[in-house]
Every structure is written in structure tokens, then in C-alpha cells.
Design a protein that fits this description.
Elements (H helix, E strand, L loop, with lengths): L1 E2 L2 E8 L7 E5 L7 E6 L2 E6 L13 E3 L2 E3 L6 E3 L16 E2 L2 E3 L2 E5 L3
This protein binds FE2/S2 (inorganic) cluster (FES).
The site of FE2/S2 (inorganic) cluster has 10 residues, from loops.
Length: 109
Amino acid sequence: MAADDQTLIYLCKMSAVQANSAVRVLAEGYEPLAVCNVGGRFFLIADTCSHGLASLSEGDIEGGQIFCPFHGGSFDIATGKPVERPASIPIPTYPLIEIGGDLFVAAKT
Ligand code: FES
């Protein structure tokens, strides 16, 4: 799919991500990703915690942060910055593209 000369990779439907939860998705060229629904606003972050091999999409979302299910470290979902220790290294965030209820990420060139 192309929009504004950008090739997009389909991730999931917005309706597939419940409020204040995350869903793990895969996109070619990216590490595993997590689509996060923060009170109706959607964000795309790396799914793997920077402290270990936990899947952040299995953690809780509260106050704009996602909490790692392994050791409870947390990250600001909008920026990827670590908030609660033991998380200390930021996780990548990516622009999420919403089109008609579907969510996409730009393909890496
Ligand atoms: S693996 Fe995520 S805080 Fe340790």
C-alpha cells in the first residue's frame, strides 16, 4: 500500500487493541513491535524490554507507561524513555499511521 510515496505495512485493526492494553505485531524489517492503546490514543513501540527479553505487550499500561511483566520496569509509551527501574535504556518508538480504522507502519527502505 502506498500513501504519500511511502510504502506501508499493515499491523492490525485499531479495534483489536483494547483501551490501556497492547498487542504484539510483526513487520518486516523491524524487531517485534507493540501497538499500545493509551486511553484511545495509539502508539507503536518496540515490544522487547531493554532490560531483558520480556514482551512488553504482556505488561500493564497505566498513566501513559507500560510496565514490564518480568521485573516491573516501566517506559513512557510516547517517548520510549525508561521511567521505573530496573529499566534504564530507552526503547525505540515509531510513527504509527492510522487509515480508516487500520494501523500501519512505514516500510523500511
Ligand atoms: S526484563 Fe523488563 S524490567 Fe527486566
